[in-house]
Amino acid sequence: MQDDLFGDAAPQPPAKSLANAAPRVPSASSAGQNAAKVRPAPTVQAWCELARQLPAQLRFGVSTWSYPGWEGLVWDGVYDASTLSKNGLDAYHRHPLLRTVCVDRTFWRPLTASQYAAYAGQVDDDFRFVVKCPASITDAQIRSAEGKGREPNPGFLEPSLAIEHFVQPTLQGLGAKLGVLVFQLSPLPWSLLSRPMLVLDRLDRMLVAVRQALHAHASVIVAVEVRDPELLGKALVDTLKAHGATFCLGLHAKMPPIEEQLPMLRALWPGPLVCRWNLNRIFGAYGYADAQKKHDPFNAILSEDPHTRAVLARTIRGITGAGQPAYVTISNDAEGCAPLSIQKLAQAVVA
Question: Region entry Disordered: which residue ranges (predicted)?
């Protein structure tokens, strides 16, 4: 059954479909005071029928929405990045295929509850946010501006910091619109990677506190993403399972390809899917700058990855077909244009 569930055989049909639902295009009155500043592209209406065919449990989204190059795909015209960053979320969430977004900026600096509330005010009640925990909590090292580790981070996986600077502000600001909390562990120094149980013990203590803080918010998914393949295995599975957390598929060259990460989800079954497709493997583990240079202005698929798309589509069908939720966010660095990647992936899911 588990092999079938993750795409090794014929997929199960979705447990629930949007086939009979009205298109999810919110009215301007639900969008807040900035609705007139950024408008959705008229072409998004063409994707309503495809959206109806997707499993109700599935939410697609991007990792950042402030790209002027999405003119005609998401936006109705040319807007600068600053305007889109402040006011583009309202237009973004009107796209029928975009039912979530990954807030990546929180990785670099914690946000306040009021900042989260401003995001929540731009979207309708069906929308959900995926939010990354600040690196000040999930990075074992304090890094230089160039990203090199300078010294150990005393706040690494510290429970009180995770609650105060991440869990509580997201809950207060986003409320019922909070979907997933992602704890992405940055690449570990050898001093810790050679002692994985020390890391997992810290993770265990933090997840205890996170679960206590979420006791009244059972629908919020807690996902842990790692950047070191050496951590994949039973010990990590046991730690996640003990606290009802899931493993986040991180699709980029620093980690094994998707099919080699799926055993983690099988070991945690039944459970949700949280996937972040961040970088095409052709650019290597640290090729984000090369991907940005090739893909700018991010309005076309220039680095197509049909293999990852096909495996991910089968995985989505299996997991949502068993009634579990699925959150899949995609970066422009995956194929060149996140909205077009989502359209192709959606078509593969319903094919």
Answer: 1-37
